[in-house]
Amino acid sequence: MKTLMLGNEAVARGLYEAGCCFVSSYPGTPSTEITECVAKYEEIYAEWAPNEKVALEAALGASLAGKRSFCAMKHVGLNVAADPLFTISYTGVNAGLLIGVADDAGMHSSQNEQDSRHYARAAKIPMLEPSDSAEALRFARLGYELSERFDTAVLIKMCTRVSHSQSVVEPGERILPEPKKYEKNPGKYIMMPANAKNRHPVVEARTRELTAWAETADINRIEQGTDNSLGIITSSTCYQYVKEAFGDTYPVLKLGMIWPMPERMIRDFAAGVERLVVVEELDGFIEDHCRSLGLSVSGKELFPNIGELSQNLVREKLGRAVQTGPVLEERIPARPPVMCAGCPHRSIFYVLKKLKLTVMGDIGCYTLGAVAPLGAIDTTVCMGASVSGLHGFVKAGDEESAGRTVAVIGDSTFIHSGVTGLINIAYNESNSTVIILDNSITGMTGHQQNPTTGYNLKGDPCTKIDLESLCHAVGIRRVKVVDPYDMEACQRVISQELSVREPSVIISRRPCALLKYVKHPGPISSDPEKCRGCKACMNIGCPAISMEDGKAKIDATLCVGCGVCKQLCRFDALGSQE
Amino acid sequence: METKNIMIVGVGGQGTLLASKLLGRLLLGRGYDVKVSEVHGMSQRGGSVVTYVRWGERVCSPIIDKGEADCILSFELLEAARYTEYLKPGGRIIVNSQQINPMPVIAGMADYPQKLEEKLGTLGINVDALDALALAEEAGSSRAVNLVLMGRLSRHFDFTQEEWMDAIEHSVPPKFLEMNRKAFALGANS
User: Residues of B with CB below 8 A from A312's CB?
Assistant: First the structure.
């Protein structure tokens, strides 16, 4: 029966139908729902791993044990998993191994817009690229066939518009292949130099075989047009933009496998059109391939290598008129994302700003601590970089700067890759102060469990990593716990830990205000009689507080009663419960 | 038929995703090709959010571009003003007149534009403004704004009452069904 499915949900369905038995992932927008949807199938073991490297290695282990396996990550997660990725290319697989990676052109929720297709070529691992949900399902199934036929891991590359758009799919039945027996094969699985030297030629031969397959594969197809003055090579969501803009006017070569790419098919296509254009997001990946074949082609001279494309952009750059709607002549203020009312991160950033500290930031909801009026973060690079960056900053800076610099990192991010930085702080003895913002969940990606929450992906109780013990165990003697809603205590503890000359960790602990089990006291009220309009309460950037006629006003539909604003009011105008 | 396009815009957390789920069900029931595109992640934290709903014989792009929307369904007044450029000539905006201050306004760095409803009316587009929040509260919950707006939308598209009711039943939890039906009716008839 036809149904609407999110691209990510369709990948999960494809995994199910292909008989996948093991999934290990780390959440990251826009990839997260693949694993969340997989977790709903009882037949598939699924887990959140501490990071993408662990997830991919676990998936390889499951493949070697003989079960079809999978792991998903966002584009930057593939950087973390790159180490196993490049050598898995040499080992190949036992049962099929599929790796989902979701790019985020336009950076809807990411720190860069790297183009993951380069990884396929660099690691010499084939990459499939679906353009809608039906293909996401079909390509996930096909991925396992290719993986086992060519003895290779297979990448399936998603992007925000394919991952997060729903389109029509027709689900099929699950087919469970016989588990493949694990057999010792040191020459294939022990990648020390003598063996790896023998495996590299196998990888190159495999690439030649895959290239030959690409020439005849039906996922690479030529769609004839009525006007051969222009021929377009494209893939992924860009294929949809091209079809939206031109329908079946121009011939289109649609690539379903983006690496390795066919050669003869592209040459034949080019020979049949007067002008060859590549339409692709981010880098000129297909275009470079065409050039390497000696073809005359345009691509990035027309289309930007920054941000997303769209049907209007395709129309405009290929000579069609575009008509847009009316624009209001009015300054429309931006509406950036904000920390939620009651967010436990808010008060910590207020204190850090008040103390005028340099703050090494990290990846999560708390990156919003960089935004006005809090504006309390100095750096954000990648997962874990706050802790390791702080160490370098403190070591290279003067003694005074050590007393004025901290790192902030969330619970999930700390487990992902902050703990190794903390080990470096302990081992190489920097006078660093790390604040772990423990909100007991992976927040930004939409509430995923992690090793510190005591629950697993399926929602069952499990071993809970104790952050205090972990910090002690890696050699940090000073570990303090504070309640972020108590700003006076936060300020006291942060000042104290900055003043001591040894590494310390402060755990700011309070669950995310959006968690269903969190009970809030309920909205507070403001007293216009007492309010002097000093705007002290406005400095925390709470969406529930605004000024009306010079007086602070609380939006009772948003306020949860965290009481942080109350601590800032010198006139007792905030706080009486309604 | 030509592909139809509805943009649903609002503030992260207002329930725009339920509206798109409901429309998806409705349209698929008619046998159309349908695409619904959403944004997840950071924008959902109180930011400006957009959902694209497209249907027809063959829908390619998952997004709606400038100049393509038949209708913008806006959960908030400022968000309606932000996206007028996406309307087709003669397009329609259905807008909840509720105002939610964005952070730059709260922080005193920008002003919430005045008289937006009137100004939208000068653009040569159809503007249908209603206080969906008040109607939702009348139906029983401020969270039913999405169903009030669906009700208003039903005036402009050719679907039967039975089709709408089927889509509502399959999109909201049973215990809130009556309240949501009421909200839908208030939006359609007020």
Answer: 65-67
Closest residue by Cα to residue A374 from A127, A541, A180, A569: A541
Q: How far apart are CA A438 and CA A344, in angstroms?
A: 9
pTM confidence score: 0.96
The interface pTM score, or ipTM, of the predicted complex is 0.95
Confidence of residue A578 (pLDDT cuts 50, 70, 90): very low
In angstroms, the CA A408 to CA A363 distance is 10
Q: Which CATH number fits domain A524-577: 3.40.50.150, 3.30.70.20, 3.10.560.10, 3.40.630.30?
A: 3.30.70.20
For residue A326, the distance in angstroms to the closest alpha carbon of chain B comes to 5
Q: Is B119 helix (H, G, I), strand (E, B) or coil?
A: helix
Of A29, A166, A244, the CB nearest to B60: A244
A424: Cα separation from own chain's centroid: 26
The mean pLDDT of A261-269, rounded to a whole number, is: 98
Give the pLDDT mean for A28-37.
Answer: 97
Residues 61-90, chain B, touching A (beta carbon < 8 A): 61-63, 65-69, 78-79, 81-82, 84-89
Domain A3-216 fold is: Rossmann fold (3.40.50)
> Which residues, in sequence order, are CB contacts of B50 under 8 Å at separation 6+?
B7, B8, B9, B39, B83
Mutation pick from B22, B27, B45, B85 vs chain A, by most beta carbons of A within 10 Å, is: B45
Interface probe with A: pick from B4, B60, B74, B109, most Cβ of A within 10 Å = B60
End-to-end CA distance of chain B: 31
Range B4-189 has CATH code 3.30.450.40: no
The whole-angstrom distance between A390's CA and the closest CA on chain B is 25
pLDDT of residue B38: 85
Alpha helices in A228-317 (DSSP H): 236-246, 264-271, 285-292, 311-317
Question: What 8-state DSSP symbol labels residue A298?
Answer: B
Q: Which two tokens stand for residue A384?
A: 């874990």
